[in-house]
Amino acid sequence: MVRFLPARGAVVTAVPSVADLLADPLLGGARTLAGHAGLGRPVRDVTAYRGVLDPVDGHLVLCAAEDATPAYRLDALVRRAQEAGAAALCVTADGTARPPLSAVRLADRLRIPVLWAATDAPFQLALDLTLRVRAPEVTRARTVENLLRRLATRTEGPELIAVARGVLAADVSLVTPDGGAIVGDPVVPDALRPQLAVPQRTPGLLAHPVHAVPFAGHLPGGTAPVTAWLVWPFERTDEDRADTVALGLALLEPFVRSWLAGARTRADHDSAVRRRLLAEVVTGRGTVSREVVEQAVALGWRLEDWHVGLAVHAEEPPAAGQSGTVPEPVVAALARHGVTAQAVAEGDGDWALWCSSGPRPADDEPRLLLRRVRRALAELPADWRLAAGIGRPRQGPGGLADTLTEARNAARLAAARDVRPSVEHTDELGVGRLLAAWQQSDITRAFAETALAPLRDPEHAHLLTTLRVFLEHGGSSAATARALGLHRNTVAARLRQVRERLGVPLDDPSNRLALQMACRALTTP
Amino acid sequence: MSPAPLTAARVPALAAGATLLGSGGGGEVATGALLLSRELAGAPVPLLPAAALVPDTLVVHAGLVGAPDVLAERLADPDDFADAVRTAAEVVGGSAGAVGVIEIGGLNAVVAAVAAARLGLPLVDGDLMGRAFPRIDQTVAAVAGVDPAPLVLVGPGGNTVVVRECSRRLAERLLRANVLALGGAAALAVHPLPAARLAAIGVRGSVSACLGLGDRLLTARDAGGTPEGLADAVGAELLAAGRVEEIVPRQDLTPGWATLTDGRTGAVVRVDLLDEYLAVTVDGVTRAAAPQIIAAVDPSGRRPLRADQLRTGGHLILLRLPPLHTWPSDAAPLVGPLAFGLDLPPPTGPASCSGSALPTGPASCSGSALPTGPASCSGVSSRRTPS
Fold first, then answer.
1. In the 8-state DSSP scheme, what is residue B254?
2. A11-134: CATH topology
3. ipTM score of complex
4. Which DSSP letter does residue A71 get?
5. Which residues on A lie below 8 Å from B270 (Cβ)?
6. Domain A441-523: top CATH class
């Protein structure tokens, strides 16, 4: 067996020590009254005190509260237990009596732990502890049976983890390969070695891989990828208990795998239904069929309400969104900022969302919504490169199609901005829309191709960028330098080159307008 | 050869010895010692062993019974003791020929001498307890099957209670009830015995032993020195020397205890106590237990400390004094730890103390705890002290 060197204070011992038993759920309610220095003593057996104490080398001696009452009798008992070679003395009591200071001092002096276990079934405790120490396989079998019985009636992930936590009395969690929590608590990523798709036992962490459900075309005998890990972070344990928990995790894995797969399938199906339904609403405009209305109601869509469309485009969508669902973080981030929206994934990284309300939204609602969406998107990973557009409030199924179209157009314009995430609102785009029409006209594009030709080759891309940013920032070199992270002199030098290559002065307003149009036409898709 | 008469010059030694022999109880001796010094001025009291008296001489035992708070505020009248002794002698139809000591530990050692001085009678060199005990039935006379009657109590103003007949079992309760009626403290005369009978059953030579012990303590006090030196000087066994870390007060009749850490060895020491020191347990092993005499001495002033004088943080030297009397083994339920509600393993230790290694057995505590001496605990005494 590979034995890892203890790290970060976590300990795995071969024979259970007193401290290991204290960490066990059996003695979960026990307090250590004294003799903390002896907690590392190995426990080889369990003996119940019956008035006399034969030599009991390495035993945990259990005595009833009466043996330690009146309190002064604990002194003699501690001494006798120590002389008999006991590993520890455990008083089983249901009260919270205070031990005499002399017994505490004596146990500290003799370095023999004195435990106070609150139990109303001392015989059961003695039996369980004996099994735990002498026949760990029995304890393991009991635990496994108990776990299996309880797992059999559960299907949801959080329930499964809760059952495992209860039966194993261990803080089991389900985490992603990078340590993020799916159910339970996250773990430090470097504690896990996700590249090894086998059960792992390192000092401080027990981990069991959860494999993906084998898909069609999966090679027989190959290993399905690990989608998640079942982990148990511990501070100390002995091998028996670690074995028990490891077995429990192995037992738990198929249940969790089944839940993950089921959840995935449901999400895929749900997403497909939504996409088809939205397509029907949009194409049907004002005249949706009764069947569509019924399905929409089933999904919680209120087609007759007022809608505000929100189109979100991710240039680098996260992996989870590729299968046609709107990533959960997007909806969650919006919800955190008070935007409750229906969401449909229309394609890879293209997500249509809308908010519905019975009465017509107030006049300041669009501005408020714009601010909320901006904040929400700012919380999402920057490397998704999000651009979003918001439509005007519209009523009914036809209105939903209209506001979503507006939102898509606004999103397209937002995508032309340099910053990410960028959000635009249709209402704010009166001029923008005019410009957008111009920019997309063939004449403008043709002009742009010609006018900016000297800067179009890749080695002068930086000049084109500088020119575009310079024009977008109102012709200010200082603002341009800030935006590009350059020194102002660099910007001035580049602008000089631009002038030389284009052969037009940049201080003429007409030239600037024409060049700005050209720049925008080139960068708009 | 008879011991030298008791003179005023010997009173400090008597007081010091009596405090040590009180085993932590027996009451405050100093006031009684001052009284005795006055009584003895110019008139020494002869000190005679019971065997040296004419065999049919009537010896009446005198003492003081009551609560320490009352005794501290109301000085006893020596005439009350004299009246009590005379009345007890009259009841048995004779006159007292000598005064006996009920308990050699604590205040009653000097009170008997006060009575003897006031009556002009000799004091018997002996006692009935060999130390201090809280109850009137914890005597060698009771072990020998002798009833205490007649029992005479004289309170302030000459109020006198005479109990002509009473069983050993009831004596304590009768005392308790009557002392309460007499204002919380009274002079007591009890156990009138012919000298020959007393010579057979009494503890012999205890007053001389008390004087000797007091002398040695006073000498050791002047010499200073180590705990071991002190133990050697008074001929006792050193049990522990350390600092009091915690005192758990008694709860009515349930003993409390003090926990010490021995400064020399680091040993954990527990002293069980009620009115007296009942047992000393070192590192979980019982080293001394009643009826052995356990004394606590303040290491700086060499002053014996009563159980009610212990304070958290104070330093102590714990000693086991040589026994004045060997109790028979069947006396264990009466004077052993069980009599105080302590269930302890028998004490172990150096063989020098075989005299009191009592086997423990089933026994019941009588449930009445009125001290015969002024050593009653404050909890009981405050109830008995009239306001």
1. B
2. 3.40.1390
3. 0.74
4. T
5. 72, 75, 100, 102
6. mainly alpha
